[in-house]
Amino acid sequence: MGRSGLKRVVVLGSTGSIGTQTLQVLRDLGEEFLVVGLSTHSDISLLAKQIRQFTPQAVAVADPEAASELKTGTWKGDVLRGSEGLVELAALEGVDIVVNGLTGAAGLEPSLAAVRAGRRLALANKESMVLGGSLLKEAAAESGAEILPIDSEHNALYQLLLGLDRTEIRRVMITASGGPFREWPLERIAAATPEEALRHPTWEMGPVITVNSATLVNKALEVIETYHLFDLPYDQISVLVHPQSVVHALVELTDGSLIGHMATPDMAIPIQYALTYPDRTGRETSRCSLQELGRLEFRGVERERFPAFFLGVEAGAEGGTAPVVFNAANEVAVESYLNGRLGFGGIAETVREVLRSHNSRRINGLEAIWEADRWARQKAGEVIEMLEG
Ligand code: MG
């Protein structure tokens, strides 16, 4: 990375869950890290507080209306606006690391901008890879930018794969908690209420991601992310349901050995690693006591229990615009589920119908992504109306 010593960091989505945890880690890491950029969608009161704490060089507010209400006191930095503002912040001059903690498809263009500018991208935004994995990898190959995943499973895999030769790998496994319905009788799941879906056993997250954990759509997105991040074919990526969320990833080698990464489910650990890599400096985050845990359980992913997961992995393997369509259709379906327009079982049904009527195309630029995204959202709306009526 750039100059030795001081690392200059931009945190995109600094008022969200990943963002606030990243700022806490940065504070603990001390003066070797300097926060130079922050961003929010519209939480300007928290952003104003973060500006007072970190006095960055610039901030971005994605919602232009909220931007005009930001009160910055005596701080004299730049306030960038809208989605262009996020892109501008991601490519800010003299920055070493861009942490992308944005939610949804809005994360893709800032990721691309950071990678094109040669920054280390510490990536928590899944959609960047799911939608634009091929574009991001091309850009990284050109600029030499590093992409370090913050997602716990990919961060674990990154660490595991460092010392391994590709020819030694038979397959990799990432784990899933299995969400709140992993023990439910199958016939009850289709009628699960949003309240029941939002009761996630191990991780604290926003409502859409929590529903995506209950359907295991989140894990399908992570399989697609794994494919792009590590250049592994889909038949070498598998998922294990592991309720304790302590083993994050495993690599199976050609001689039958299994090497795993374990840690307490605490995002501070992968965040800190992505910031300090290749070093392992910083405070000791939560320790993991296997003795206290007593036992770890694993099982496969059942097709009847998690149909949307399999739709996602199949879309990934189909490639091109299919993962874009999968992601967009799922987002629309989850929103309708949370609004009470659709039952839980309707999420997978909607996604299946939309994918069925899609002809996947190669992605040659951003426009192909946004076109597929728009098409899928509209189609999902039609399917949901049909399911309602
Ligand atoms: Mg994850």
Description:
- The strands form 2 sheets. The protein has a 7-stranded parallel sheet with strand order 4-3-2-1-5-6-7, with helices on both faces. The protein has a 4-stranded mixed sheet with strand order 9-8-10-11, with helices on one face.
- The relative contact order is 0.11.
- Helix content is 47%, strand content 15%.
- It is globular and about 60 Å long.
- The longest helix has 23 residues, at 366-388.
- The protein has 17 helices and 11 strands.
- α6 (126-143) links the parallel β6 (120-123) and β7.
- It is α/β, with parallel strands linked by helices and 389 residues long.
- The model has no long low-confidence stretch (mean pLDDT 94).
- It has helices at 17-29, 44-54, 64-67, 82-90, 108-116, 126-143, 152-161, 186-189, 194-197, 207-215, 217-230, 268-276, 290-293, 307-318, 322-338, 344-356, 366-388; strands spanning 7-12, 33-40, 58-61, 78-81, 97-100, 120-123, 147-149, 169-176, 237-241, 247-253, 258-262.
- The chain binds magnesium ion (MG).
